[in-house]
Design brief:
The structure holds 2 protein chains of 2 kinds.
Chain A lengths: L1 E4 L5 H14 L4 E6 L10 E8 L13 E4 L2 H7 L7 E6 L11 E6 L1 H8 L6 H13 L4 H9 L7 H19 L1
Parallel strand pairs in A: 1-4, 4-5, 5-6
Antiparallel strand pairs in A: 1-3, 2-3
Helix pairs in contact in A: 1-4, 1-5, 3-4, 4-6, 5-6
Chain B lengths: L4 E5 H12 L3 E4 L6 H13 L3 E4 L3 H13 L4 E5 L1 H17 L3 E9 L5 E5 L4 H6 L8 E3 L4 H18 L2 E7 H5 L1 E5 L61 H16 L2 H4 L2 E4 L6 E5 L3 H13 L5 E6 L1 E3 L3 H8 L4 E6 L4 H9 L6 E5 L8 H11 L5
Parallel strand pairs in B: 2-3, 2-4, 4-5, 5-8, 7-8, 11-12, 11-14, 14-15
Antiparallel strand pairs in B: 1-9, 5-6, 7-13, 10-12
Helix pairs in contact in B: 1-2, 1-6, 3-4, 11-12
The chains are: A alpha/beta, B alpha/beta.
Chain lengths: ~180, ~375
């Protein structure tokens, strides 16, 4: 899968947390990578994640089954790489979907929900993770929380749990 | 879950392995894409009683670890192409003076400052011949984090056994990607410790007189023996000598101690080689793309195999010739203009059956890049 957005939205952190949770707590294999350099500053940020129950050789994603776009620029740049029939999740606050693509398109109000209920955008990425795992069922939510526990200060855990739960609800609603 | 399972970058896997191998002293100058090694060790080494020094440049970094090695420490530095270029003078010194040390080069695109944030395997020949004069060198590489760990520990062991610098040629792709690493328990992997002289204080110690097995016991600088270390040709006391017999003997020793053990030093992995019509030869991150193709095509019944090299220098000519003998075509997969291709051509009986599948634009070599070459060889066009 590919997470994309703009620098500072935490898409890379979210990718690392998801992949780490899969490997350390769900016993799966995962590879995470990201683009470095000029293209990683401003513009569209991208992180690739492969999660599998077998060995992963080629470490990059060519056609993602799941593509998340958190900004218009990221959507414009990446929407065409989605695997036919895949899942394309975009955020309603920033992304106006323009073209019909051969994928299940889910436009979800993740940013606005986080702002309305938590008031700060810093856990936007964790809400997005909640949405992704709710729709795909790939990684256990408790595994995400465990991965968060050793990455962030204890005082922030509650806020992150709230954001994750919020995302899971949004995902479950969107799934049906 | 066990605490020894990590989900980390290849650079961190290398640094974890160095600590496991007994690293005491690290000096370095940060450079993309190797910086995480320096960063990790800057925080970890002081916690375990080691020393970390950030130097003013890469020449000083290698000189610092050479000095520390002579005092009995296990040492390492890490850099990328531009820094590795600066290190060549000191690398020759470490070869000549027979100083155990590990030098990591996380390759990026070159020449010059090139492509700082993109992968490449363009420093393979630099590792072999970057420093001047006849010499032998050990250079290892790996394609995944578990192997990076194992080969880093191996690099420290070989440096001690052969009293030589060992180069670890990683690349940006494996260095920056994250995947699972299981850190072995202490004692699970054998570690080679410094061979120290048993000669007592006041008795003549010959720092450059090999034992019967070829190994040279060392005496820590600052310890009981006083001796000379020089980049000039030297006698068994370490004092400069241009006496032809001394020069000839030393140069032959420096080359033979490594080249004569090429088979012992050969580390490689093989997948489906026995009946392979098409044999891919690859190493480092490129081997991941190659393996991807081999697994896909094997499941369709195609006779394709992979030889993954982990020891690049000394190049295991005989092993490569044997493994390639039965293949109709050998395709070397690498991210440069054919640096290992040339040595594979020298190794095999029919150089005309060796082809190159490469990528040199900074993007990671894709399975389709290899497939295109396979199609060409089969006369199918791209």
């Amino acid at each position: 899968m590919v997470f994309s957005g703009s620098g500072g939205q935490g898409v890379i952190t979210a990718a690392i947390i998801l992949a780490e949770a899969a490997v350390l707590y769900d016993g799966l294999n995962a590879v995470q990578s990201q683009s470095y350099g000029a293209e990683a500053r401003g513009g569209a940020t991208r992180s690739d994640i492969i999660i599998s129950d077998t060995i992963i050789h080629y470490p990059k994603v060519i056609q993602p089954n799941v593509l998340v776009c958190l900004t218009q620029e990221a959507y414009n740049k990446f929407y065409s790489i989605i695997r036919p029939g895949g899942l394309l999740i975009s955020d309603t606050r920033y992304v106006q979907t323009e073209k019909k693509v051969d994928a299940q398109q889910k436009e979800i109000a993740m940013y606005e929900t986080v702002i309305a209920k938590i008031g700060k955008p810093i856990v936007f990425n964790i809400c997005m993770l909640g949405t992704v795992i709710a729709i795909t069922g790939l990684v256990n939510p408790e595994s995400i929380m465990k991965a968060l526990q050793h990455r962030i200060p204890a005082d922030f855990l509650d806020m992150n749990r709230k954001a994750l739960d919020m995302g899971i609800k949004l995902g479950e609603t969107a799934k049906n | 879950m066990s605490g020894n399972i990590k989900f980390i970058q290849g650079n961190e896997a290398c640094a974890e392995a160095a600590v496991y191998a007994g690293l005491d002293f690290y000096a370095g100058y940060p450079i993309t894409p190797s910086t995480e090694i320096t960063e990790f060790l800057a925080s970890r080494l002081p916690q375990i009683g080691g020393k970390f020094l950030q130097m003013e440049d890469e020449i000083a970094s290698l000189c610092a670890i050479i000095g520390a090695s002579l005092t009995g420490c296990k040492v390492m530095t890490a850099t990328s192409g531009p820094g590795f270029s600066l290190m060549q003078e000191a690398l020759g010194y470490a070869i000549m003076a027979e100083i155990p040390c590990v030098i990591v080069n996380v390759q990026r695109g070159g020449p010059s400052t090139g492509l700082p944030t993109h992968g490449s395997q363009g420093d393979v020949n630099q590792a072999r011949w970057g420093t001047h004069g006849d010499h032998a060198i050990i250079a290892l590489t790996a394609s995944n984090h578990q192997d990076i760990f194992a080969l880093t520990v191996e690099a420290f062991n070989l440096a001690e056994i052969y009293r030589t610098p060992v180069i670890l040629l990683l690349d940006e792709v494996v260095a920056h990607m994250r995947e699972r690493l299981v850190i072995p328990q202490p004692g699970e992997m054998p570690l080679v410790e410094r061979l120290k002289t048993t000669v007592n204080e006041g008795v003549d110690y010959h720092p450059y007189l090999p034992r019967e097995d070829g190994r040279l016991p060392m005496s820590d600088f600052g310890g009981p023996h006083r001796y000379n270390v020089t980049g000039l040709f030297h006698d068994m006391w370490g004092f400069p000598s241009s006496e032809p017999r001394a020069v000839h003997g030393l140069l032959r020793h420096l080359v033979d101690k490594i080249e004569n053990r090429v088979n012992q030093l050969a580390r490689y992995k093989e997948y489906y080689i026995e009946d392979a019509k098409h044999l891919l030869v690859s190493y480092g991150s490129s081997a991941r793309s190659a393996r991807h193709i081999v697994e896909k095509r094997r499941s369709r019944g195609e006779r394709i195999g992979l030889l993954e090299l982990q020891t690049l220098w000394p190049f295991p000519h005989e092993m490569v010739r044997e493994k390639c003998a039965a293949a109709q075509a050998v395709i070397v997969v690498e991210q440069n203009m054919g640096q290992i291709l040339q040595v594979v051509k020298l190794a095999v009986d029919q150089p005309d059956k060796v082809f190159l599948a490469n990528r040199i634009d900074g993007d990671f070599i894709m399975p389709s890049d290899i497939l295109n070459i396979l199609r060409l060889i089969q006369g199918k066009g791209v």
